[in-house]
Each structure stands twice: as structure tokens, then as C-alpha cells.
Amino acid sequence: MDAHEGTIKDILQLDPHHFITASYDWTMKVWGLNHDEKDKTFASERLHLKGSSGKLHCICKFGPSVISAGADNTIRLWDIFR
Length: 82
Prior knowledge:
With 82 residues, the chain is mostly beta strands. It has one domain. It contains no helices and seven strands. A hairpin with a 2-residue loop joins strand 5 (56-62) and strand 6.
């Protein structure tokens, strides 16, 4: 499964069915687990988040949101659960 165009730097479980990845391609993606045994991939992209102006280094869950820190010297708050 090709997940990002750049190196995946961090991954975080959001709930029992979703996780998020942060990449050096300046994006984050929310993934949903596939429960169909016929599907050869274990997860599908649900949301593609852009907005950082540099490589993403880490992410953490912060209440109902996710915080990212990147090479552009910023910390961003993402409200992905809306």
C-alpha cells in the first residue's frame, strides 16, 4: 500500500477503527481499517490533510483534535473530528 509520497515520520491511533499518518511530504492522512476479508489492503484513506509548509515530524492527539509539529517551526492544531 503506497501511503505517502514521502517518508512516513509518525503514526497515531485515533480510535479502534482509524489511525493517522504524518509524512515528510508535508501532509497527514486519516485511514480507516478495512474489515472486508476480500479487500487485500488493510486500510483505506479517509481524509488527506494539507496545510503545513514543511516536513511533518510528529503528531499527537489533543482532546478531539490532533497537533502536528514540523520542519517549518510551527505547531498546528487540526480539528479532524468535525
